[in-house]
Amino acid sequence: MHGLGNDFLIFPWSEELPQKNIIKALSSRTKGIGCDLIVFLIKLEKNIANYKTHFFNNDGTRAEICGNALRCIGKLHYEEFSSKNCLIETDVGLIDVEFNSDSTLSVDIGSPKYKWKDIPLIREMDSSNLGFDFSYLKNGFALNIGNPHLVFVVDKIDKNKFTEDSLKVRNSKFFPQGVNINIVEVLKKNEISVLTNERGAGITEACGTGACASVIATNKMQLVENKVLVRMPGGLLKVEITSDEHIFMTGDATKVFEGKINFEDLRNV
């Protein structure tokens, strides 16, 4: 499945999770199936949540949460059970997903965290301005929205300059658990363009939590309102900040194909 071009392999699961080399092989676009992220989805019985999830980036590292993948799970749940509401257990808590009448899906991402220990940062510092001063990326607003994000406002999105300076950010060692890096071009008070360099996956077509983090950061900077249309290479997301600072993300989810794969065939890849 994919959410705006951010693509996933989703496996129904009930056993021990595969080793890192299997995850990397599955994710390979030349030797496996190919994806940005893998989801192992466990159906829960007699539990408040419908599913428990395990997310893995295509480099084999674990991800706490993925907004676009959560919409895909919500769509699968609706198709299977005709139920519009789905509660999903993640590493960072319970997430509610709702299937809408226009076939889009909305995710309640929860409330952001700004304290340096919660992001986390390597030491105490002003998370609203980390003071980066590279040729393209300046300052930097850090926050955690289930996973760590860093947001930069730029005059114009430039993928090559972004890629170059993203390496400098990662080499700064400010983020002990890594970070997703976003650049934002503000188009209007209610519209922005975003490009995200995801931890463990690189630059992707879209990032749901990246869209949310970008809206929150630019809202705190008083550059945008609390309802914002987010443009990414893969498509559009609507993000809303509620009065109690919960973040709602709405967008599409698309199924591409279903099939079977023998994991044993990947062990020597």
Describe this structure in words.
- This protein has a 16-stranded mixed beta sheet that branches. It has a two-stranded antiparallel sheet with strand order 9-10.
- The protein folds into two domains: 2-110 and 253-258, Diaminopimelate Epimerase, Chain A, domain 1, CATH 3.10.310.10; 132-245, Roll (Diaminopimelate Epimerase, Chain A, domain 1).
- The protein has helices spanning 20-27, 67-81, 159-171, 208-220; strands at residues 2-3, 6-12, 37-43, 51-57, 62-63, 85-90, 93-99, 105-110, 132-133, 138-139, 141-144, 148-153, 180-188, 191-198, 202-204, 227-232, 235-241, 247-251.
- The protein has four helices and 18 strands.
- A hairpin with a 4-residue loop joins strand 9 and strand 10 (138-139).
- The model has no long low-confidence stretch (mean pLDDT 96).
- It is α+β, with helices and mostly antiparallel strands.
- It is globular, with a radius of gyration of 18 Å.
- The two termini are 23 Å apart.
Structure, briefly:
With 269 residues, the chain is of the alpha+beta class. The chain is built from 4 helices and 18 strands. It is 18% helix and 36% strand.
